[in-house]
């Protein structure tokens, strides 16, 4: 019998690409999503596969989730469902606690009860905060600066505690700035590249907050799906927390130069004052995960950006 994997947040940006990776590699997948920020459209391809089942439910609702664990006896779970907006976590700390921490606990306990051994958790580079020592390494002392980051860190600690206590194979992946098709450009706090792409394609000016010299470690969602899939399905994965990043820093000015090549007639960029809470530089060290999986991010940034704007 082909093993079955559970993916929460399946209809989201990273979720839908991760589901496709698992299906492509011959696994069966049950996706759970409540469509809070995800979209059914994202799963158009996946839903045509006989190996995919979508369940519309709240991943933190134990009553809804228990029968799924009972029925499918999952081999592993990729837990992506979350409140994903940092500003929303400031406005709604209680909801942030429920969606980003309590839900992880509920699911981890169901994993233990139903012998779903592997739990891959979507953490975030946000746990590092404005940590001065770059590149961020997993051994750095985390300094969360938002309720979102705090809940991600707390969930990591809890899952690793369950690993030590009960043998749960918890793998916490700290994603840096993920970009690619299907990222929602809907709010000013969405991934910056999804907003840039949306506005350049519509011939609208983009706004850069600050001087444009701020840097990010952008990683393609295609590489993130590969990391997720491998972390979920490989036998030789070791419990722990791992950066998911490229190890290359790119400034917004460099990003804009690539857009200008792609959209030579675009209106001039507008600059506004920097936003409170925005980190100036973000860069991760990918070595730990690279050594464990013998794989590193494949998509070169300029190429990934061209593909994003072509599609
Ligand atoms: N995109 C990034 O750059 C990035 C960076 C760091 C961490 N992350 C983390 O990766 C994960 C996926 O993020 P994304 O960018 O794909 O966002 P997304 O909003 O596209 O995906 C999140 C999905 O979870 C679903 N969801 C939310 N709460 C749910 C619940 N209670 N029950 C069921 N489904 C629920 C949403 O409907 C959505 O489909 C999140 O945990 C996020 O915190 C993303």
Automatic annotation (TrEMBL):
Coiled coil: none annotated. Pathway: Bacterial outer membrane biogenesis; LPS O-antigen biosynthesis. Residues 6-245 form the NAD-dependent epimerase/dehydratase domain. InterPro entries: Epimerase_deHydtase, NAD(P)-bd_dom_sf. Gene3D superfamilies: NAD(P)-binding Rossmann-like Domain, UDP-galactose 4-epimerase, domain 1. It comes from the Bacteria. Belongs to the NAD(P)-dependent epimerase/dehydratase family. This is NAD-dependent epimerase/dehydratase family protein. It comes from Candidatus Competibacter phosphatis.
């Amino acid at each position: 019998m082909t093993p079955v994997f559970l993916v929460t947040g399946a209809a989201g940006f990273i979720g839908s690409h991760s589901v496709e990776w698992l299906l492509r590699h011959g696994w069966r997948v049950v996706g759970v999503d409540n469509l809070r920020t995800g979209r059914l459209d994202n799963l158009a391809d996946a839903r045509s596969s006989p190996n995919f089942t979508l369940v519309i439910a709240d991943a933190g609702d134990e009553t809804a989730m228990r029968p799924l664990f009972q029925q499918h006896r999952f081999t592993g779970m990729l837990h992506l469902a979350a409140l994903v907006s940092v500003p929303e976590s400031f406005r709604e700390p209680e909801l942030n606690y429920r969606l980003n921490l309590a839900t992880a606990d509920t699911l981890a306990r169901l994993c233990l009860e139903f012998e779903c051994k592997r739990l891959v958790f979507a953490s975030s580079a946000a746990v590092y905060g404005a940590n001065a020592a770059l590149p961020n390494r997993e051994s750095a002392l985390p300094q969360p600066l938002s309720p979102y980051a705090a809940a991600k860190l707390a969930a990591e600690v809890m899952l690793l505690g369950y690993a030590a206590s009960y043998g749960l194979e918890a793998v916490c992946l700290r994603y840096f700035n993920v970009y690619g098709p299907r990222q929602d450009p809907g709010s000013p706090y969405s991934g910056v590249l999804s907003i840039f792409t949306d506005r350049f394609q519509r011939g609208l000016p983009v706004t850069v907050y600050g001087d444009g010299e701020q840097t990010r470690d952008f990683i393609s969602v295609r590489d993130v799906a590969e990391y997720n899939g491998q972390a979920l399905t490989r036998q030789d994965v070791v419990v722990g927390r791992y950066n998911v990043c490229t190890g290359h820093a790119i400034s917004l000015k460099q990003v804009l130069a690539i857009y200008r090549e792609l959209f030579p007639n675009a209106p001039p960029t507008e600059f506004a004052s920097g936003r409170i809470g925005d980190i100036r530089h973000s860069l991760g060290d990918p070595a730990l995960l690279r050594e464990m999986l013998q794989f590193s991010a494949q998509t070169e940034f300029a190429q990934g950006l061209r593909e994003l704007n072509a599609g």
